[in-house]
Amino acid sequence: MDRTNTVIAFVCQADKRKKLISSLKSKYPALRVIPVICIGKLNPVIIFRLLMKEARAVILVGCEPSDCHFREGVFFSERRFFLAKEVLKGFGLNDRLLNIIWSNPGKDALVLKQFETFMQYLKETQIEKGA
Amino acid sequence: MINEIRDAIIQYLKSVMKENDVVLALRSSSTPGILTPCILRNKADLDQIEAGFFHLNNLAVYLSEFFQKENRLSTLQGYLYVLCKPCDTKAVTQMISDQQINPNKLKLVVYACEGMADMKKVKNEIGLDKDIKAIDLHLTELSLTLLDGSPLSIPVSKVISSKCLECNKEYHLTMSHVFVGDEKKWKSHPYSIATAENKVLLQDQKKGKDLFDQLKAELSACIRCNACRNVCHACFCSDRCIFDKPKMTVGFLDKEISPIDNILFHMIRFYHVAPNCTACGECERICPQGIPLSHLYEYFHRLMQESLDFSAGSSDSMRQAMLSYRLGEDLV
Amino acid sequence: MKTYQISKSQLKQLLEPYLTAETQLIAPSLNPLGLISFNKIQNINEIALNTSIPLKPSKSYLFPESSSLVQFDEKNPHLLESDISQKKQMLFGLRPCDLAAIAYMDSFFSSNISDHDYVQRRNNTLILGVACEYPSNACFCTSMGIQPGTSIHADIFLVPSGEDFLVEELSEKGQEYLASISKGWKEASNETLATQKNEITEKTSSKLIEKIDLSKIRGRLSETYNKDFWNKYSEACIVCGACTFDCPTCSCFDMNDSMISSSKGCRYRSWDSCSFADFTLHASSHNPRSSKLHRLRQRILHKFQYTVEKMDQWSCTGCGRCIRVCPVGINTRSILKDAKEALGE
Q1: Do residues B83 and B175 share a domain?
Q2: Per the CB < 8 Å rule, is A45 touching B268?
Q3: From the candidates C39, C47, C66, C133, which should be mutated to test the interface with B, based on the most B CB atoms within 10 A?
Q4: What is the pLDDT of residues A50-76, one digit of tens each?
Q5: Domain shared by B131 and B261, yes or no
Q6: Residue B289 and residue C209: Cβ atoms within 8 Å?
Q7: pLDDT of C133-159, one tens digit each?
Q8: N or C: which end of chain B has fewer CB within 10 A?
Q9: How far is it, in rounded angstroms, from Cα B12 to Cα B179?
Q10: How far off is chain B from A2, nearest CA to CA, in Å?
């Protein structure tokens, strides 16, 4: 399967994030935004599959520990995504292919800024599989 | 030395085995240089037991079978004695910590191990056009008889497994066990030719695209036989394994063989086992294609120790790395 | 059918025509992971003939590990046959055990129903056998009725003779090929050929570690169904499937669909193993062979009983690869000896 230029974003769909999701969708048409209940529920195995086959990069947006309404789910997910990034490194892939943004719902500007930086980085470096 | 240990093990088991006890150990097979695991239920059968230099198998992988639904260990009235090398006990400890087996029914028989053979190295020593008819260990020399009847002697240092050369002769075990052999004497001379701390892994030597290309080339030999998964004591999803259901998880991971699909298989598998992997090396030994999986499991083993301060198999009560967290640990 | 005698340097003439871009030459060579296996050859110097029987069989060149059968496209609904490479290939260096295995695979894939995929590949293949001088410690071909020095299942058969090779034509395809390249080749007599074959058979047979007489139990193995000896092998088995993947006659496969995009995909088949737990899993979730004992027993009886009943031939050729690759030392020869004992022979 050929990798496309798609960047996939999994966004925690807390109430206050609806605005963020809609602004992301309008600003970056090539970005596929997938709202999830909590990124703590996300199995990194899905991320590996996406990165090896269809996606160019994956961005996760989740809440900070103080705000996660599943209390301690985010602590476990921190370790989980750390291991996911290490797996990518261990195989020689650029671990920036998986990018994680922690921010509280409502702080849209911060998130948008990080997206902007990342999209710029992608454009400039032309990250490919294995680079 | 090896025969002494074997006799000591048999003597010990004969003295403690009761009527309903079961012994999980090894017996000789008709293939030179390899032992076959066996389940012994009678004292009379105990004489078949073999141990020592050709004890290559990690018997921990059979333990989960005793706890499966059809085979409840609770129907076992006595104890289950398991013959372990000291490094195998890590696997058993990790399985207890993962709540896969019940330690109350287990008794481990650990013995003074002086290393195990690497049959690939033995085959390299004898040449591609010859093969082994019989093989035996005499002190520090391996004496072979080849197919054409000619004898050959190889020093043990040339064919011992590289994992054994790093053995620091330490093992921690809180559960019920007995040590057969002189434990003080055994601990007093560790091999430690290459220590774990100074070890240079593939990921240190190559980075980025070079690393990816080498791993891709090595893993392209994979025929997706799932042997590495089946022999791994850390893979305990058993019949719920994600790799067995290509139809249910349509298009997630096909059984198709291509370099990218093979990398994805190993990526997913090592992600799942990294916290439980004790780097026993069985996956590499069993691979029918000879893929050097040590390039992967050594890296993850070191990663767990350095970043999360977690060593699989060191404690049977410490919660597994992925199921615990420390506050303020800013990893990502 | 003629027999020629050629020197080692003339062997090049036999193989070079298949070293072009439109063809491929497959022969035993050392692979990057240190095993002797059948690989695509770029240079004749890579070929390794004087080694123990290659650990890997050559079946992946006729029956690949995974191959796409048909392609489909929802937007353009008609089935597209997948392109099987039309490359002509030569399989060189197969020993009598492997040649007998190919004969079995031929009858499996093309006698009752013709398997298009396999037959196309087979028709594009020229098979050159070679007499076996270096067995492994697991070989038991003579117990399965195979002679290491001769075979009828190749297109051309080579017999090493001192510094030379005797080249025997066996089929029309072989004859046609040799006619095009054998300029200036010396011919040899049938007596020389027969003598040399016998010598090799005797010498190699004497190196075999064990010979088992199966004549009295042929066709009777189903009587061992309920015997006890199966237990001591199945309890050690870890269901890795390596025996089936390295066996030159194992041909079970699984079929699945793989999607390239949400509307396009292909149906592919990949190697499967009767040792796997879900091999006989029914849609109702009933599994008639749920235990390891069932599956190990079925595998042995398939090779030594069921094909004898249905096709009147053993489907084991005694190559010993299952023994060499088994990580827990399960030995097919031991199982056969236990079966003989259980039947009172």
Answers
A1: yes
A2: yes
A3: C66
A4: 888 878 889 888 887 777 777 776 777
A5: no
A6: no
A7: 999 999 999 999 999 999 999 999 999
A8: N
A9: 10
A10: 11
Instruction: State the Cα–Cα distance between residues B273 and B292, nearest whole angstrom.
Output: 17
Find chain C residues with C-beta within 8 A of B260's C-beta.
Answer: none
What six digits make up the tokens of A114? 């990080």
Q: Which range is least confidently modeled, A124-128, B198-202, C35-39?
A: A124-128
What is the residue range of B49's domain?
2-116+167-188
- pTM of structure: 0.88
Map residue B110 onto helix, strand or coil.
strand
Torsion of CA C54, C58, C64, C66, to 10 degrees: -10
Cβ separation B250–C257 shorter than 8 A:
yes
Rounded distance between C-alpha atoms, residue A75 and residue A67, angstroms? 12
Q: Pairing between strand C186-187 and C3-7?
A: antiparallel
Question: In terms of pLDDT, which residue wins out, C236 or A38?
Answer: C236
Residue B73 has pLDDT above 60, yes or no: no
* pLDDT value at residue B27: 92
Domain count, chain B: 3
Strands (E), B41-161: 80-84, 106-111, 132-138, 141-146, 151-155
Tokens standing for A10? 């999994």
My answer on whether B269 and B301 are in the same domain is yes
A32 - beta bridge partners? A8
pLDDT over threshold 70, residue B192? no
Same domain? For B176 and B142 the reply is no
Q: Could you tell me if B110 and B179 are in contact, meaning their C-beta atoms sit under 8 angstroms apart?
A: yes
Measured distance CA(B59)–CA(B49) in Å, rounded: 14
**Which pLDDT does position B70 carry in this prediction?**
53
> Could you tell me if B214 lies within 8 Å of chain C, comparing CB atoms?
no
Asked whether residue B214 falls in the same domain as residue B272, the answer is yes
The answer to whether the CB atoms of C331 and B29 lie below 8 A apart is: yes
> What local confidence, expressed as pLDDT, does residue A1 receive?
38
ipTM: 0.87
**How far is the C-alpha of C256 from the C-alpha of C270, rounded, in Å?**
8
Of A39 and B59, the structure prediction assigns the larger pLDDT to: B59
Residue B127: which region, alpha, beta or left (left: phi > 0; alpha: psi -120 to 50)?
A: left
Mean pLDDT of A65-93: 82
Q: Are both B177 and B228 inside the same structural domain? A: no
Q: What is the pLDDT of residue B194?
A: 53
User: Which residues, in sequence order, are CB contacts of C246 under 8 Å at separation 6+?
Assistant: B288, C55, C56, C57, C321, C322, C324, C325
| pLDDT for residue A3 is more than 60 | no
B149, B34: one domain: no
Q: Which A positions 38-57 lie with beta carbon below 8 A of chain B?
A: 44-45, 48-49, 52-53
Residue B193 in any domain: the answer is no
Residues B279 and B153 in one domain: no
Using CB atoms within 10 A of its CB, is residue B327 exposed (0-12), middle (13-18) or buried (19+)? exposed
Of A51-55, B235-239, B263-267, give the lowest mean pLDDT range: B235-239
What would the DSSP string read from start to end of A55-84? -SEEEEEE--TTT-TTTTHHHHHHHHHHHH
d(CA B152, CA B145): 6
Q: Do B296 and A90 touch (CB under 8 A)?
A: yes
Question: Domain segments of chain A: what residues?
Answer: 9-31+43-124
B contact residues 238-257, partner C, Cβ 8 Å cutoff: 239, 244, 246-247, 250-251, 254-257
Question: In B15-43, which positions are buried (b, 16+ CB within 10 angstroms) versus exposed (e)?
Answer: eebeeebbbbbbbebbbbbbbbbbbbeeb
- Identify the residue whose tokens are 């046609």: C176
